[in-house]
């Protein structure tokens, strides 16, 4: 890169486009070049040729096997990933194979021959849900001992709150494998601690610690974290880990925290006595106490565009508050399916869409998109009665996707525009194979990367966290199903309430 001299030229035997697209594989052993008549040429060095031969053999076996099956399989690529890794030609199988071989432009080499046979069949034109079943089909990184987590706003660290009330901060460092220094599943982070050795440790309640609700909120500049683990609320300096102040000893105890979007000194604090307290840190004073829920507060979200605060509670109620005078503007209860049982601690969470007008509602029985000014549900997704409850869900950073986790350890990726499911990540892709499906840890929380829309972190009940990304060859989680009635994507085009039959059938 620091020389203007031409290093080499390669004869591609003609038929190239005037301005062809080119792309190396991650190892630099193969070069794909677009050609005339929708063709693709693959150029290879000796290592690449050996890799191609491996894929050709596997693809031939897979295509022969598919002749005896009426429906083509989605996963010949799993075997290809294992072969590529074991042969030593790739340091990670995940960087070699496609997520599920379904995003046309980024076909995997091991997927070429089976797709030729499939494309001659009309069935190949029918959209099919992308399912991820193998570790080789996505990139995953496990972090230990986590129960609550959030990405820093800079995107280069994950902050966690453990069940012992201690905060842990993992930072990704710049390296040859991670030039940006941002959070990635392709490189391991380092547990960071100041030279003083200080730990950020919350005050813990002396009564019923197992019932304590952990919660925290991060300031926009990543300088401060407000946190509670059943006891007093603590304000920590993120650079030094020093405790700046503690306040509001229980009862009542804090159950949810949210910084005001325009003023980091103003905090909305949800309480286990169903109230919301608007607290000014600078003057150490409660400015307002909001009453409208009947059970503990489980979610708070500000819209700076509409100048409102939306709250949710364990009573399955939503409230909209004007953030000037803190008057309650609207309230509505969630509609829960008849006959659908809920757990005693069923939480309702809220998160605003990027447009600051719509917000996501997460309940164990449903995902829903609400319009704020009328507090009306404009789209809803209901899992089948036999499926596991939803444990948590969040928007991706660009609000184009919704990541939802379920108590059976499944993660589903939805289009945020219409809550249509288009990718499912099964437990077998990230949990050890020797873990029984009856006792495996279940997801408690999902955190979305603040800058990478296809990356999220999943916190499990055993304290573990996995950071997920699609394969580099794909760059996204599957493909969405065809649009209904030609509607374009975007929240403005959200259809009417209620999932289609195919949506429910996919869960």
TrEMBL record:
WD repeats lie at residues 290-322. Residues 473-507 are annotated as: Disordered. GO terms for biological process: regulation of DNA-templated transcription. Transmembrane segments: none annotated. PROSITE patterns: WD_REPEATS_2, WD_REPEATS_REGION. It holds the Pfam family WD40. InterPro entries: Topless_fam, WD40/YVTN_repeat-like_dom_sf, WD40_repeat_dom_sf, WD40_rpt. It comes from the Eukaryota. Keywords: WD repeat. PANTHER family: TOPLESS-RELATED PROTEIN 1, TOPLESS-RELATED PROTEIN 1-RELATED. This is TOPLESS-RELATED PROTEIN 1-RELATED. It comes from Salix purpurea (Purple osier willow).
């Amino acid at each position: 890169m620091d020389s203007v001299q031409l290093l080499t030229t390669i004869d591609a035997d003609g038929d190239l486009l005037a301005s062809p697209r080119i792309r190396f594989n991650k190892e630099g052993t193969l070069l794909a070049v677009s050609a005339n008549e929708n063709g693709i040429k693959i150029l290879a060095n000796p290592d690449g040729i050996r890799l191609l031969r491996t894929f050709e053999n596997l693809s031939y076996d897979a295509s022969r096997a598919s002749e005896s099956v009426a429906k083509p399989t989605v996963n010949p690529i799993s075997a290809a990933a294992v072969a590529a890794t074991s042969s030593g030609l790739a340091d990670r199988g995940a960087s070699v194979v496609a997520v599920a071989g379904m995003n046309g432009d980024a076909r995997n080499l091991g997927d070429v021959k089976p797709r030729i046979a499939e494309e001659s069949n009309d069935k190949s034109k029918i959209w099919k849900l992308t399912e991820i079943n193998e570790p080789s089909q996505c990139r995953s990184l496990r972090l230990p001992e986590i129960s609550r987590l959030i990405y820093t706003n800079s995107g280069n660290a994950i902050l966690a709150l453990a069940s012992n009330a201690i905060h842990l901060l993992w930072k990704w460092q710049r390296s040859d494998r991670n030039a940006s220094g941002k959070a990635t599943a392709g490189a391991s982070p380092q547990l960071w601690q100041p030279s003083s050795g200080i730990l950020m440790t919350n005050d813990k309640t002396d009564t019923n610690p197992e019932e304590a609700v952990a919660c925290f909120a991060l300031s926009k500049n990543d300088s401060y974290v407000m946190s509670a683990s059943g006891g007093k609320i603590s304000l920590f300096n993120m650079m030094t880990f020093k405790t700046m102040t503690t306040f509001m000893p229980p009862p009542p105890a804090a159950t949810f925290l949210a910084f005001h979007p325009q003023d980091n000194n103003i905090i909305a604090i949800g309480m286990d006595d169903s109230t919301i307290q608007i607290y000014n840190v600078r003057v150490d004073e409660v400015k307002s106490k909001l009453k409208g829920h009947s059970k503990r507060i489980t979610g708070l979200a500000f819209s700076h565009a509409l100048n409102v605060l939306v709250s949710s509670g364990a009573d399955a109620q939503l409230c909209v508050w004007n953030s000037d005078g803190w008057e309650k503007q609207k309230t509505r209860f969630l509609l829960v399916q008849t006959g659908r049982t809920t757990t005693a601690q069923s939480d309702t969470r809220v998160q605003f869409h990027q447009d600051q007008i719509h917000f996501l509602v997460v309940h164990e029985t449903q995902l829903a998109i609400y319009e704020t000014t009328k507090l009306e549900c404009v789209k809803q997704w209901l899992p089948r009665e036999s499926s596991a409850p939803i444990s948590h869900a969040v928007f991706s950073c660009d609000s184009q996707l919704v990541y939802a986790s379920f108590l059976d350890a499944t993660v589903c990726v939805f289009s945020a525009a219409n809550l249509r499911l288009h990718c499912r990540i099964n437990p077998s892709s990230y949990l050890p194979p020797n873990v029984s499906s009856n006792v495996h840890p279940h997801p408690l929380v999902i955190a979305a990367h603040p800058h990478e829309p296809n990356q999220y972190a999943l916190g499990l009940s055993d304290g573990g966290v996995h950071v997920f990304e699609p394969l580099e060859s794909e760059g996204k989680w599957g493909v969405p199903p065809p649009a209904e009635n030609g509607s374009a994507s975007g929240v403005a085009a959200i259809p009417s309430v209620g999932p289609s039959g195919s949506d429910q059938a996919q869960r």
